[in-house]
Design brief:
The protein is an alpha/beta fold. The protein has 11 helices and 13 strands. It is about 45% helix and about 25% strand. A hairpin with a 6-residue loop joins β9 and β10. α9 packs parallel to α10.
Amino acid sequence: MSEIKILTDSSAQLTPEEIKKYHITVVPLSVTIDGNTYIDGVEITRQQFVQKMSESKKLPTTSQPPIGTIVDTINELTKDGSEVIGIFLAKVLSGTIDAARQAVKITGKSDLVHIVDSELTDRSEGFQVLAAARDIAAGKTVPEILAHIERIKKTQRLHLLIVNLENVVKGGRLGPLAGKIVNMLNIRIELQMPNGHLKIAKKGRGKKFSLAFDKRVLDEIEANKEKIKEVGISYVANGSTPQKLLDLAQKIKDINSKIDVLVRETSPIIATHAGMGAYAILYYTE
């Protein structure tokens, strides 16, 4: 029986329960650490990845899913005549969406498969996936679902705080000497992704900057508290969820108890570039 199905990648912040409930198909990226390659979410968990990353002297690398894997997945999902909405992480972060588009051409099923650049990743990508899944359950058509996703993209927000620039240095974006100076000064930066473009929004020093970051985002949520239904707090930490982030989630609930807040480890692709101690707050308004 034909229907509408959802396809996404493993960088999307989705719980196992959400994936199961909405029958979401996930194609995994791969991560390589110290010469060993693992399939994200299949051969390595997010926590295991962070543990290995913290022990590695070299920056891990991430790879998009093989085109053949995406081709096989598309063929499987469409064999009964179903349409597919594929929502992937921002093009600026990965070649996954280009691989998906190429896979659609190879299968010759452009009439059945609709590829969407989420323009973000993590829980923001997850928000789009879940909105599409709920729309399907409500009996919406493909054009209606795609229009809904576009509305979400226009109001989605990501505030990412990087507190340790070690991975930025390892990635060669700063020279070793500059990296030492930056770390010595305890510089922290806030990244945002308006319209799918990564940019440094602010930079400052130490815990004072982090506290100001939290306050700015909480004030933003307060100003939009009636329009926000869901917030994601994603993080990079070697061990249990930092209490600071649980407290931050509670402050959001205090603003509006109806807002759902998911606090969860981010994917390897974000952890690799954001580094230890980083965390992001993501939401959209409707």
